[in-house]
């Protein structure tokens, strides 16, 4: 079973968000970057579990510059067999998907896994874009994944008010959500072995970007909470009339 796992670099959730002077780029100065948790905890670990059960190979793919290598090495330390990095900074999700597809279609992967979203843009569109460009079935927000190794996958995903169980013949693309697997911490042996595992850097395929960033803006800072004495109903009524806003 050959599995491709898409992993990406994101700012740590405690990072302070700011943008460049013209407002068109995220300011990464002094920011700690991590592997996107949904890619790491659920997609990557589930791929490793499947290969441990049925044999095969786990390859990670990342679209980005050399600053991504540290999180790629962590993926290798956790248990991926090898890694590919497309050496370009994608301008949008469609370009990232395009670069992934250009690599993926050169090999016969049985399964492509990725996290349900990244914790920076929270777009949750990459999986569907990859599946559409490869003309493969796509299941989003998978919480359980089982297979007997015969190329048929049983995927459970949450829907409003319950769960949906799908049985799909591979190859296919799945985005992983909480419940798919449990986080693994790389041990010393894995860290040492990751240094010798192959990380192949490939040039990007030619791409004509259809998206340009006009500007980023921080949300309006929330005002402090006003505490009103429960006996002071007149003041509460005044504030509701004069200051409260319905959005």
Account of the 3D structure:
There is one protein chain. The protein is of the alpha/beta class. The protein has one domain: HUPs (Rossmann fold), CATH 3.40.50.620. The protein is built from six helices and eleven strands. A nine-stranded mixed β-sheet has the order 9-8-7-10-6-1-4-5-11, sandwiched between helices. A hairpin with a 4-residue loop joins strand 7 and strand 8. Helix 2 (69-78) packs across helix 5 and helix 3 crosses helix 4 (126-134). The radius of gyration is 22 Å and the shape is globular. 33% of the residues are buried.
CATH architecture: 3-Layer(aba) Sandwich
Percent helix:
25-40%
SSE run: EEEHEHEHEHEEEEHEH
- Biggest beta sheet attributes: 9 strands, mixed
Summed over residues and divided by their number, the pLDDT gives a mean of: 92
Our count of helices gives: 6
Secondary structure layout plus pairing:
Layout: E1 2-6, E2 9-11, E3 33-35, H1 37-54, E4 57-63, H2 69-78, E5 82-86, H3 93-104, E6 111-115, H4 126-134, E7 138-147, E8 152-159, E9 162-169, E10 172-176, H5 188-194, E11 199-202, H6 233-242
Parallel strand pairs: 1-4, 1-6, 4-5, 5-11, 6-10, 7-10
Antiparallel strand pairs: 2-3, 7-8, 8-9
In short, what is this structure?
With about 250 residues, the chain is α/β, with parallel strands linked by helices.
Keywords:
single chain; 247 residues; alpha/beta; Rossmann fold; globular
């Amino acid at each position: 079973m050959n599995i491709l796992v898409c992993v990406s670099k994101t700012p740590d959730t405690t990072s302070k968000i700011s943008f460049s002077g013209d407002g068109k780029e995220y300011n990464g100065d002094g920011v700690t970057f991590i592997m996107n948790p949904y890619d790491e905890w659920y997609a990557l670990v589930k791929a490793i579990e499947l290969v441990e059960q049925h044999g095969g190979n786990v390859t990670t793919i990342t679209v980005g510059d050399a600053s991504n290598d540290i999180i790629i090495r962590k993926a290798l330390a956790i248990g991926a067999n090898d890694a590919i990095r497309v050496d370009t900074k994608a301008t949008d999700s469609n370009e990232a998907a395009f670069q992934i597809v250009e690599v993926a279609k050169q090999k016969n992967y049985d399964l492509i896994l990725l996290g349900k979203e990244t914790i920076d843009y929270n777009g949750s569109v990459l999986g569907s874009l990859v599946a559409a460009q490869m003309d493969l079935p796509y299941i989003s927000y998978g919480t359980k994944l089982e297979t007997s190794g015969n190329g048929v996958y049983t995927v459970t995903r949450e829907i409003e008010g319950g769960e949906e169980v799908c049985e799909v013949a591979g190859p296919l693309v799945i985005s992983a959500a909480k419940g798919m697997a449990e986080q693994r911490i790389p041990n010393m042996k894995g860290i040492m072995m990751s240094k010798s595992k192959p990380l192949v850097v490939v040039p990007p395929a030619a791409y004509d970007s259809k998206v340009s960033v006009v500007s980023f803006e921080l949300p309006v800072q929330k005002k402090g909470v006003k505490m009103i004495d429960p006996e002071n109903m007149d003041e509460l009524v005044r504030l509701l009339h004069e200051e409260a806003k319905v959005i």
